[in-house]
Amino acid sequence: MAATVKNAVNLHVYDDPMRITQAAFNSRQGEEDFVVMLSKDPAKYRSILQL
């Protein structure tokens, strides 16, 4: 007796942006990474904040 099984699975992961933000920036390392990100292109972030 033989059997053939063909499985296909498509996974779509959706996450809450607020949860991602909290996980990324609610630590000392996250804060330091954010400062580094801002320091790489300060003009870009000033324009976003309209300063």
Structural class of the helix and strand makeup? mainly alpha
* Unreliable stretches: none
- The average pLDDT value, as a whole number, equals 85
Give the radius of gyration. 21 Å
In DSSP terms, counting alpha (H) and pi (I) runs of 4 or more, how many helices?
Answer: 3
Run of helices and strands: HHH
Shape: elongated
Annotation, overall tally of beta strands: 0
Percent strand: under 5%
Level of helix content?
55-70%
Distance between the termini: 73 Å
Q: The biggest beta sheet, please?
A: none
Account of the 3D structure:
By secondary structure, the protein is mostly helical. The chain has a domain at 22-49. Helices cover 59% and strands 0% of the residues. The longest helix is centred in the middle third of the chain and has 13 residues, at 28-40.
